[in-house]
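the three lines:
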Amino acid sequence: MKKIISGWTLIKIYTLLVYVWMFAPIIAVVILAFNPHQFGSFPMEGFSFKWFVKLSHNSSILAAFKNSLILGSLTAIFATAIGVPAAMAFIRYDFKGKDLINTLLIAPIMIPEVVLGVALLLFIRWLQQPKSFMLLLIGHVVLTLPYVLLIVQARLVGIRKEYEEAAMSLGASPFQTFREITFPLLAPAIFAGMLFSFTISFDDVTATLFWATAQNQTVPVKIFGMLRNSISPEINALGAVMIVLTVSTPLLAGFISRRFAKGKGK
Amino acid sequence: MKEKSLRPWLLLSPSLTAVFLLLVVPVCFVVVYSFWLRAPSGQDIPAFQLGNYAKFFADFFYPSIMLSTIRVAIETVFLCLVMGYIPAYFFYKTESKLKPFLMILVMLPFWISFIIRTLSWINILGDSGLINHVLMKMGFIHEPLAMLYNEGAVIMGLLQYLLPFMILNIYVSLDGIDKSLTEAAKSLGCTEWQAFKEITLPLSLPGVSAGCLLVFVLTCGTYLPPMILGGPGNEMIANLIFKRIIGTLDWPFGSAISTILMILLVIIVYTYNRYMGIGQIFKALSTD
Amino acid sequence: MANDLGERLDNVYESYKEGKISRRDFVKYLGISGAALGLVGGPFGMIRQAMAAKSIRFDGWGGTVSEAFRKYAFKPFTDATGIKVIDGEFGNADSYLTRVKASYPPGGEYNLAHLSGVFDYKRYVDLGFDVVLDEDKIPNLKTVMPAIMKPYRAITNGKLSAVPYDYGLTTIAYNSKFISDDKAKKMGAALLWDKDLKGKLGSWTDWRTNIWYASLKTGQNPNDIKDIKAVWSALKEQRGLIKKYWGSGAEQMSLLANEEVYASIVWSGRVKTLQNQGHTHLKLLIPENAFSWQECIFVMKGTDLSAAHKLLNYMLAPECAFAIASGQSYPPSLDPRKVTVPGAVAGLPGFDATGTLNGYLFADPGYWNTHQLDWAEKWDRIMAGR
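prediction for all of em together
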């Protein structure tokens, strides 16, 4: 018995170490957001909020941030909207060429983004069409589709077909069955898929660099542009704000829902 | 009956249309371009000739970069697996209330731009970075350790970027395992380790397999970590594609390198899928 | 109804085959089908086109430079003409050319761009993206140094497709805490080959710059290299000493500021910025025949020229040019004999008070562009150590 506990403790310590390692650069980014000098090195000399103040006045970065959020959200919605049916088709049906099509749909991650970025532009040029926001959006949907497919398929495999068949035999239409039975069971994977496609779209540099028009540049593209001169610590400040938001939102939501559940219970 | 055979295609049609228009057709353009010629001015001349491919194989330079890219990718996959499996197993086993929160933390690094994340390693590993600073203060070393600008640093950057993919893929498949199976095994006298080895580990292989494939393929196509963290000589094949297509505007040759890389990846993915791949595992799982 | 639509599409396809309509129109008709509608943006595409007439796009380096342009040129221009300036960003100059080349129609949505190097000007001209500017419509062009316009005129038959905007140096910086001024001065370009600095040297990934300085090291004229083999072997030797070939200004600044390297190839304006931020121990070393370059505002084919002329005139106005100069620490193209240059601008590295640019060595665009393909590739091999 004692041995088992020590094994579990080792696992915990290992996980903790992986977390520390994974977050080391993130912590450096956040700390340097408070550095009064442009070129941060440790130890830091002083402490200041000036980059946060500057950021709040920088309309160009804030506009890009808004673009990133809109693009990421729409990508997440569309990628799951088309990815979930595709995953259903793969797991629930048998048809010719299934393996081939499955490989084809996860192909977007196999092609280097530089190539895909230019290739799509060549195609658009051949069609003699200008770039547009739609192009950027569909491009991101295609880029993130494989992640949604992989996650949703993995979950769908575990949901028993019998539930759906039972509902159908009771007279439910396929859509009703999906809504009442499959969807609730699948929800965690759908959520994970959306989270994935949002973050990947939010963080994408290379393809976006080629596809974005001047009006819908995203934060990573701005940062890529800043590389030429110097990356302003305003970007660190933006990162710090993002981190605080993402860490606090689920905590806050958890807290509120717990309060809510407690109130209800009484 | 006929309606039923149509249904999967109906479900697939939006994805297929999008991937066909934005991926398959553009990739055909790349393949066509790989047979073209580049004029000295940068114009592309339509042609059909194999010169670009001949150039790739003319000496050992490009193939050797290709090989070293694959070597780095395999090393990255291996390290990702070693670093990622245990945390994923921790998520599966833990009953902590913080579990969902810890899971979201895994995705947290993505909220800070990849470029910034990669650049910030310089503040940690550099000559005047955190580690050297602390070690020198404590008197362990007198000269800063050279940790940046070598292959180790590149792999470090890659791991930092790819580990979340590995952890989440393994976790998704661990999460699907019925915990009563291991309980049953233990009640039959298996130790915790035996139960893990005989039941949990084999059942988690689909996730391991998907994670490895994802990490491998993504490593082969990335150019930013070698560009920022690598020293002279640590460039990977995607850096060369970037340079040919963007730097010298040599689209035909850049397309040829890309085509070769794509063919190579398709062969690897296909063989992999055939013997230990996702398709195989899904099939095995969904037929019961 | 469906039949009717099908018939119309057939007609369209027929006329496409007969060459009556362009592929663009053909696709537009096909846009009736959902997929193409998504690609071209459907009705949004039309709105966008209607808006395009009232706007002009500028692509630049972003950051402080863009801020200065917005304040001193774009706002007064928009106030005066009602034409909006869409402020784009390069990301990176090479990827910008890739996007321009890959866009439709030729030059695409792009109008004005802040390009570096006459060799880039030539690349755009060679690809057919040039226009002919009417210099009378840009009165402020008269205050620009004639010498800085000459290389552009040489490429486009005496005309201009761009206005020169600023100039600077790609040269050497050293950290005077570790390298004495005497030593730096004595060694010149050879400082980048100093074995004592092994592992503490930096350089740029750019093929042109490295070949340039290797030609100086081997005592050759960079614009007419006779012994290229000597250049390659010098570069091979240097590679073993280099810690990092940086790829961007941000990297070069952090390498120097964090003392990762003690000497490096740098862009003069970047080091000036570091000095302004208190890194006064970083000093510029400008050897004879240091790599000088100039930047211009290029006007892309397909641009509404009357709007472009007006906008360029605002950009060349002294207060705008000087603000940009302070923003990026590169001196402006304006002739100091014709305009009064403020002290801060005159103190920028490489500033030429004579307005003649005598003694500045620029890269010969024809020479370098013809060698680009071979040399860039050879350089990649040397950098990779194979």
